[in-house]
Design goal:
19% strand; alpha+beta; 4-stranded antiparallel sheet; 36% helix
Length: 281
Amino acid sequence: MLLAQTACFYRWPVATAMLLLAAACAPKPDVAAAVAVPAAMPAAMPAASAAPTAAAVAAASTTDLASLRKTLAERLPSLPPIDEISATPIPGVFEVRMGADLLYTDATGDHIFQGEVIDTRSRTNLTESRLNKLSAISFASLPLKDAIAIKQGSGSRRLAVFVDPNCGYCKRFERDVAALKDVTVYTFLYPILGPDSTAKSRDIWCAKDPAKAWRGWMLDNTPPPSAGAACDAAALDRNTKFGRQHRVTGTPAAVFEDGTRAPGAIPAAQLEKLLAAAKPG
Protein backbone atom coordinates (compact mmCIF):
# COMPACT_ATOMS: atom_id res chain seq x y z
CA MET A 1 0.00 0.00 0.00
CA LEU A 2 1.43 3.34 -1.03
CA LEU A 3 1.43 6.07 1.59
CA ALA A 4 0.36 9.60 0.86
CA GLN A 5 3.35 11.80 0.07
CA THR A 6 4.33 12.59 3.65
CA ALA A 7 7.37 10.34 3.97
CA CYS A 8 10.75 9.58 2.38
CA PHE A 9 11.44 5.99 1.33
CA TYR A 10 14.35 3.75 0.46
CA ARG A 11 15.86 4.42 -2.96
CA TRP A 12 14.56 1.80 -5.44
CA PRO A 13 16.26 0.44 -8.58
CA VAL A 14 15.03 2.36 -11.66
CA ALA A 15 12.97 -0.53 -13.06
CA THR A 16 11.24 -1.09 -9.73
CA ALA A 17 10.63 2.62 -9.28
CA MET A 18 9.00 2.82 -12.72
CA LEU A 19 6.62 -0.01 -11.84
CA LEU A 20 5.72 1.61 -8.52
CA LEU A 21 5.14 4.95 -10.23
CA ALA A 22 2.86 3.35 -12.80
CA ALA A 23 0.88 1.65 -10.05
CA ALA A 24 0.66 4.84 -8.03
CA CYS A 25 -0.59 6.88 -11.00
CA ALA A 26 -3.26 4.41 -12.07
CA PRO A 27 -6.80 5.63 -11.30
CA LYS A 28 -8.21 4.15 -8.12
CA PRO A 29 -11.65 4.43 -6.49
CA ASP A 30 -11.77 6.75 -3.51
CA VAL A 31 -12.40 3.99 -0.98
CA ALA A 32 -11.51 6.17 2.00
CA ALA A 33 -14.14 8.75 1.06
CA ALA A 34 -16.76 6.09 0.42
CA VAL A 35 -16.36 4.60 3.88
CA ALA A 36 -15.62 7.77 5.84
CA VAL A 37 -17.13 7.68 9.31
CA PRO A 38 -20.19 9.96 9.43
CA ALA A 39 -20.48 12.66 12.09
CA ALA A 40 -23.11 10.60 13.89
CA MET A 41 -23.40 6.85 13.51
CA PRO A 42 -26.94 5.45 13.15
CA ALA A 43 -28.07 3.98 16.44
CA ALA A 44 -29.12 0.73 14.80
CA MET A 45 -25.72 0.14 13.20
CA PRO A 46 -24.08 -2.92 14.81
CA ALA A 47 -20.56 -2.65 16.16
CA ALA A 48 -17.81 -3.98 13.95
CA SER A 49 -15.73 -6.94 14.95
CA ALA A 50 -12.47 -8.08 13.45
CA ALA A 51 -13.09 -11.55 14.88
CA PRO A 52 -14.23 -14.23 12.42
CA THR A 53 -17.98 -14.82 12.35
CA ALA A 54 -19.52 -18.19 13.21
CA ALA A 55 -19.93 -18.86 9.49
CA ALA A 56 -16.29 -17.97 8.86
CA VAL A 57 -15.16 -20.26 11.67
CA ALA A 58 -17.27 -23.07 10.27
CA ALA A 59 -15.73 -22.55 6.83
CA ALA A 60 -12.26 -22.54 8.33
CA SER A 61 -12.92 -25.80 10.18
CA THR A 62 -13.58 -27.56 6.87
CA THR A 63 -10.59 -26.00 5.10
CA ASP A 64 -7.24 -27.76 5.17
CA LEU A 65 -5.05 -24.74 5.93
CA ALA A 66 -1.85 -26.75 5.55
CA SER A 67 -2.95 -27.87 2.10
CA LEU A 68 -3.93 -24.30 1.24
CA ARG A 69 -0.50 -23.06 2.27
CA LYS A 70 1.14 -25.77 0.12
CA THR A 71 -1.03 -24.89 -2.88
CA LEU A 72 -0.15 -21.21 -2.73
CA ALA A 73 3.56 -21.92 -2.30
CA GLU A 74 3.57 -24.27 -5.30
CA ARG A 75 1.56 -22.02 -7.60
CA LEU A 76 3.33 -18.83 -6.56
CA PRO A 77 6.97 -19.79 -5.96
CA SER A 78 8.06 -16.14 -5.81
CA LEU A 79 5.73 -15.50 -2.88
CA PRO A 80 7.59 -14.81 0.40
CA PRO A 81 7.37 -17.57 3.02
CA ILE A 82 3.88 -17.76 4.50
CA ASP A 83 3.86 -17.31 8.27
CA GLU A 84 0.17 -17.81 8.92
CA ILE A 85 -3.18 -18.43 7.24
CA SER A 86 -6.26 -17.56 9.25
CA ALA A 87 -9.98 -16.99 8.83
CA THR A 88 -11.33 -13.49 8.24
CA PRO A 89 -14.81 -12.26 9.21
CA ILE A 90 -15.86 -13.13 5.63
CA PRO A 91 -16.87 -16.78 5.15
CA GLY A 92 -14.59 -18.50 2.67
CA VAL A 93 -11.98 -15.75 2.63
CA PHE A 94 -8.66 -16.25 4.41
CA GLU A 95 -5.86 -13.93 5.42
CA VAL A 96 -2.39 -14.92 4.26
CA ARG A 97 0.30 -13.30 6.39
CA MET A 98 3.92 -13.00 5.29
CA GLY A 99 5.73 -11.06 7.97
CA ALA A 100 3.74 -7.84 8.18
CA ASP A 101 2.33 -8.16 4.64
CA LEU A 102 -1.18 -9.43 3.99
CA LEU A 103 -2.93 -11.11 1.09
CA TYR A 104 -6.34 -12.72 0.93
CA THR A 105 -7.36 -15.99 -0.70
CA ASP A 106 -10.35 -18.26 -1.14
CA ALA A 107 -10.47 -21.70 0.47
CA THR A 108 -8.93 -23.43 -2.57
CA GLY A 109 -6.12 -21.00 -3.33
CA ASP A 110 -7.51 -20.51 -6.83
CA HIS A 111 -7.75 -16.77 -6.33
CA ILE A 112 -5.81 -14.27 -4.26
CA PHE A 113 -6.26 -10.54 -3.89
CA GLN A 114 -4.47 -7.69 -2.22
CA GLY A 115 -6.31 -4.74 -0.78
CA GLU A 116 -8.33 -3.58 2.18
CA VAL A 117 -11.18 -5.34 3.94
CA ILE A 118 -13.66 -2.83 5.32
CA ASP A 119 -16.62 -3.46 7.59
CA THR A 120 -19.33 -1.34 5.99
CA ARG A 121 -21.48 -1.44 9.12
CA SER A 122 -19.06 0.68 11.11
CA ARG A 123 -16.74 1.91 8.35
CA THR A 124 -13.86 0.10 10.05
CA ASN A 125 -10.80 -0.74 7.96
CA LEU A 126 -10.08 -4.24 9.25
CA THR A 127 -6.92 -4.60 7.17
CA GLU A 128 -5.48 -1.40 8.58
CA SER A 129 -6.31 -2.49 12.13
CA ARG A 130 -4.58 -5.82 11.55
CA LEU A 131 -1.50 -4.18 10.04
CA ASN A 132 -1.29 -1.75 12.95
CA LYS A 133 -1.27 -4.69 15.34
CA LEU A 134 1.38 -6.53 13.33
CA SER A 135 3.66 -3.51 13.03
CA ALA A 136 3.47 -2.39 16.65
CA ILE A 137 6.85 -1.91 18.35
CA SER A 138 7.09 -2.34 22.10
CA PHE A 139 8.54 0.89 23.45
CA ALA A 140 10.52 -1.17 25.95
CA SER A 141 12.28 -2.91 23.06
CA LEU A 142 13.61 0.33 21.59
CA PRO A 143 17.40 0.71 22.03
CA LEU A 144 17.11 4.19 23.53
CA LYS A 145 20.87 4.39 24.08
CA ASP A 146 21.21 4.63 20.30
CA ALA A 147 18.86 7.62 20.08
CA ILE A 148 19.33 11.35 20.62
CA ALA A 149 17.16 12.23 23.63
CA ILE A 150 15.62 15.70 23.64
CA LYS A 151 13.61 16.70 26.71
CA GLN A 152 10.92 19.33 26.17
CA GLY A 153 9.19 20.75 29.22
CA SER A 154 8.73 18.12 31.92
CA GLY A 155 9.49 15.35 29.43
CA SER A 156 6.80 13.22 31.04
CA ARG A 157 5.52 11.83 27.74
CA ARG A 158 7.69 9.81 25.39
CA LEU A 159 7.93 9.67 21.62
CA ALA A 160 10.42 7.86 19.38
CA VAL A 161 11.03 8.91 15.79
CA PHE A 162 13.05 7.35 12.97
CA VAL A 163 14.39 10.10 10.73
CA ASP A 164 16.80 10.77 7.88
CA PRO A 165 18.62 14.13 7.89
CA ASN A 166 18.07 14.58 4.14
CA CYS A 167 14.33 13.83 4.28
CA GLY A 168 12.32 16.98 3.56
CA TYR A 169 9.24 15.54 5.25
CA CYS A 170 11.36 14.87 8.35
CA LYS A 171 12.29 18.56 8.46
CA ARG A 172 8.64 19.54 8.29
CA PHE A 173 7.79 16.96 10.96
CA GLU A 174 10.62 18.15 13.21
CA ARG A 175 9.07 21.62 13.47
CA ASP A 176 5.86 20.09 14.81
CA VAL A 177 7.78 17.77 17.14
CA ALA A 178 9.83 20.69 18.50
CA ALA A 179 6.61 22.51 19.41
CA LEU A 180 5.27 19.66 21.55
CA LYS A 181 5.06 20.26 25.28
CA ASP A 182 6.17 17.96 28.11
CA VAL A 183 7.64 15.22 25.96
CA THR A 184 10.97 13.44 25.68
CA VAL A 185 11.75 12.79 22.03
CA TYR A 186 14.05 9.89 21.18
CA THR A 187 15.47 10.58 17.72
CA PHE A 188 16.82 7.52 15.94
CA LEU A 189 19.04 8.61 13.06
CA TYR A 190 18.00 6.33 10.20
CA PRO A 191 19.96 7.21 7.05
CA ILE A 192 18.14 5.46 4.20
CA LEU A 193 18.35 8.02 1.41
CA GLY A 194 21.96 7.55 0.36
CA PRO A 195 25.61 8.03 1.34
CA ASP A 196 25.21 11.72 2.18
CA SER A 197 22.50 10.83 4.68
CA THR A 198 24.93 8.45 6.35
CA ALA A 199 27.65 11.10 6.43
CA LYS A 200 25.34 13.74 7.91
CA SER A 201 23.98 11.28 10.47
CA ARG A 202 27.52 10.45 11.53
CA ASP A 203 28.40 14.13 11.90
CA ILE A 204 25.30 14.76 13.99
CA TRP A 205 25.70 11.68 16.18
CA CYS A 206 29.34 12.44 16.89
CA ALA A 207 28.84 16.17 17.54
CA LYS A 208 29.66 17.52 21.01
CA ASP A 209 25.95 18.22 21.47
CA PRO A 210 24.03 15.84 19.14
CA ALA A 211 20.62 17.32 20.04
CA LYS A 212 21.78 20.83 19.19
CA ALA A 213 23.42 19.62 15.97
CA TRP A 214 20.25 17.76 14.97
CA ARG A 215 17.86 20.62 15.60
CA GLY A 216 20.31 23.11 14.06
CA TRP A 217 20.38 21.16 10.82
CA MET A 218 16.69 20.26 10.66
CA LEU A 219 15.26 23.63 11.73
CA ASP A 220 17.91 26.16 10.66
CA ASN A 221 19.86 24.33 7.92
CA THR A 222 23.05 24.74 9.94
CA PRO A 223 25.46 21.97 8.81
CA PRO A 224 26.85 19.89 11.67
CA PRO A 225 30.63 19.94 12.22
CA SER A 226 32.50 17.14 10.48
CA ALA A 227 33.07 14.11 12.68
CA GLY A 228 36.60 13.00 13.35
CA ALA A 229 38.01 9.64 12.35
CA ALA A 230 37.75 8.40 15.93
CA CYS A 231 33.98 8.86 16.01
CA ASP A 232 32.08 5.71 17.01
CA ALA A 233 28.97 5.69 14.84
CA ALA A 234 28.08 2.02 15.33
CA ALA A 235 24.72 3.16 16.68
CA LEU A 236 23.70 4.13 13.13
CA ASP A 237 24.26 0.56 11.93
CA ARG A 238 22.27 -0.75 14.88
CA ASN A 239 19.44 1.68 14.12
CA THR A 240 19.36 0.55 10.50
CA LYS A 241 19.28 -3.11 11.50
CA PHE A 242 16.53 -2.52 14.07
CA GLY A 243 14.45 -0.51 11.60
CA ARG A 244 14.69 -3.10 8.88
CA GLN A 245 13.79 -5.88 11.32
CA HIS A 246 10.65 -3.92 12.20
CA ARG A 247 9.86 -2.90 8.62
CA VAL A 248 10.48 0.82 9.02
CA THR A 249 10.63 1.57 5.28
CA GLY A 250 10.22 5.32 5.30
CA THR A 251 10.91 8.43 7.33
CA PRO A 252 9.69 10.03 9.43
CA ALA A 253 8.18 7.17 11.40
CA ALA A 254 6.85 7.74 14.91
CA VAL A 255 6.52 5.15 17.68
CA PHE A 256 4.31 5.91 20.68
CA GLU A 257 4.45 4.58 24.23
CA ASP A 258 1.68 2.06 23.64
CA GLY A 259 3.60 0.56 20.70
CA THR A 260 1.48 2.08 17.93
CA ARG A 261 3.21 3.52 14.89
CA ALA A 262 2.41 6.42 12.59
CA PRO A 263 4.24 6.79 9.27
CA GLY A 264 4.90 10.09 7.57
CA ALA A 265 4.82 13.72 8.64
CA ILE A 266 1.52 13.56 10.48
CA PRO A 267 -0.07 16.94 11.31
CA ALA A 268 0.62 18.51 14.70
CA ALA A 269 -2.97 18.13 15.92
CA GLN A 270 -3.02 14.41 15.08
CA LEU A 271 0.39 13.93 16.66
CA GLU A 272 -0.85 15.48 19.89
CA LYS A 273 -3.95 13.25 19.91
CA LEU A 274 -1.86 10.11 19.39
CA LEU A 275 0.49 11.13 22.20
CA ALA A 276 -2.43 11.70 24.56
CA ALA A 277 -4.01 8.36 23.64
CA ALA A 278 -0.75 6.45 24.12
CA LYS A 279 0.09 7.83 27.54
CA PRO A 280 0.16 4.93 30.08
CA GLY A 281 -2.34 5.17 32.92
